[in-house]
Amino acid sequence: MTLKSKICGVSDPKVLNFIVNHNHPPQFIGFIVNYPKSKRYVDIKKLKELMKIEKKNSFYVAVLVNPNQNILEEINGMPFDYYQLYDCDPSKIKSIKERYKKKIITAITINDIGDVNKYKKFIDTTDIYLFDSKGYENSMSFNHTLIEKLDLNKEVMIAGNIQVDDDLENLNKIAHIVDISGGLETDGLKDVSKINIFLNKMKNL
């Protein structure tokens, strides 16, 4: 199984152009749409400009924390392929999916096995499960062994303080997609040299 990749928290047009034009671009690129606590947050005006950049061979992902109707309407029509949803109950996710015709990445934040088992509530609404830490705007890890034995009929994405020099190949045993953000930054900003290393490393796995 080929391990896919997602680069999240992109907010700079130069960085986005570098990513989409890379010889080995990621399968997914994420944008923080409605969470101002994150240093990677992109306001609507800037988001509209970023969305003018052709995604080419990647999927664009809107990262949304319990979004209200206003933000959903503001981004409606933008070229997002997926909505990545945090803190939403299954009924809300179903409503969003049906109204906006987007594929859904359901984010489940993990402290313990009880958190992991929440995935069962989203079987009918999600296209991809994302298992993440409780860190949100802070890069934090969680115990990956908690999801090792899951046998899901959906793709699994894994996030949570993943670094470019981690043993990424080992993640192939528990996930289909690696989601990396802070691990590609220097002094809080996306670093194209680290992005280049990461994308080439993913290609060579």
In short:
This protein has seven helices and ten strands.
Description:
By secondary structure, the chain is α/β, with parallel strands linked by helices. The chain has 7 helices and 10 strands. The strands form 2 sheets. The chain has an 8-stranded parallel β-barrel. Strands 9-10 form a two-stranded antiparallel sheet. The mean pLDDT is 93.
Helix-strand blueprint:
Blueprint: E1 4-7, H1 13-20, E2 28-32, H2 44-50, E3 59-65, H3 69-75, E4 82-86, H4 90-100, E5 103-109, H5 113-116, E6 128-132, E7 155-158, H6 168-171, E8 177-180, E9 185-186, E10 189-190, H7 192-204
Parallel strand pairs: 1-2, 1-8, 2-3, 3-4, 4-5, 5-6, 6-7, 7-8
Antiparallel strand pairs: 9-10
Instruction: Compute the average pLDDT.
Output: 93
Low-confidence stretches: none
Structural class: alpha/beta
Strand order of the largest sheet: 1-2-3-4-5-6-7-8
> Strand count, sense and closure of the main sheet?
8 strands, parallel, barrel
The radius of gyration over CA amounts to: 16 Å
Termini separation comes to 10 Å
Determine the CATH superfamily.
Aldolase class I
CATH C-level name: Alpha Beta
Count the DSSP helices. 7
Within the CATH hierarchy, at the fold level, what is the topology?
Answer: TIM Barrel
How much of the residues is beta strand, in percent? 15-25%
